[in-house]
Design goal:
about 170 residues, alpha+beta, five-stranded antiparallel sheet, two-stranded antiparallel sheet, 5 helices, about 20% helix
C-alpha cells in the first residue's frame, strides 16, 4: 500500500489483531471495496462497501470477553466469529507439554463426516492435522477463542471432554 493510502485510512482506529496483536489497517480491494487486514498474520474481514464499514466489522470481531477453550466441534467447524469468507478464524493454541500459547489461523470442516482441521504455522504454511492429533485434542493441546489470561489458563482443567459429536475419532 502506498504511503498516501496508509495515511488516508489512519482515521479508522482499529483494535489490535486478536490472532497476533499486530496493527491492523484498512485497505482498498479491487472493485472499489475495502477490508480490514492484519499485515502480520493475514487475518482479515469480508469486503465491505466503505472503509468505515470494514473498520466497524474488524473492531466488532475484536471484542473483549472471557477467553474459553473451544470444543473440537467448534474448532473444526470454525463457528467462532469467522472473520473472512474463506472460513478462517484466529485461535490461540496451547501446548500441555511446555505451556506454550501460540496465535494461529484455523480452517476447519468435515471430510466425509470426519472432522478436518488445518492450522497455519509460524512460517505461514497450512498444515492439516492428523486423526492422531485430533484424538489428542484436550489431552496434549487445546485451542482458545481469544488470548487467555493466566487466571483463565490455570482455571481450565485438562482432560475434560472436548469432543462433542466427534467422540469416536
Amino acid at each position: 500500500m502506498r504511503q498516501a493510502d496508509a495515511r488516508k485510512y489512519r482515521q479508522y482506529r482499529l483494535k489490535p489483531c486478536r490472532a497476533c496483536s499486530g496493527a491492523a489497517r484498512v485497505e482498498d480491494v479491487p472493485g472499489g471495496l475495502y477490508w480490514a487486514i492484519c499485515p502480520v498474520c493475514g487475518l482479515r474481514t469480508d469486503v465491505r462497501m466503505t472503509p468505515r464499514e470494514a473498520a466497524k466489522l474488524w473492531n466488532a470481531a475484536q471484542r473483549a470477553g472471557a477467553a474459553r477453550v473451544l470444543t473440537l466441534r467448534e474448532l473444526c467447524e470454525v463457528t467462532l466469529d469467522t472473520l473472512d469468507d474463506e472460513g478462517t478464524a484466529a485461535v490461540w493454541v496451547e501446548s500441555r507439554t511446555d505451556g506454550a500459547l501460540t496465535a494461529m489461523l484455523a480452517q476447519g470442516g468435515t471430510d466425509f463426516g470426519f472432522p478436518m482441521l488445518e492450522l497455519m504455522d509460524q512460517a505461514g504454511e497450512w498444515r492439516r492435522l492428523s486423526a492422531e492429533a485430533l484424538r489428542n485434542y484436550g489431552r496434549t493441546w487445546r485451542a482458545w477463542c481469544a488470548r487467555p489470561c493466566r487466571e483463565e489458563i490455570e482455571g481450565e482443567k485438562w482432560d475434560r471432554p472436548l469432543y462433542g459429536p466427534y467422540e469416536l475419532l
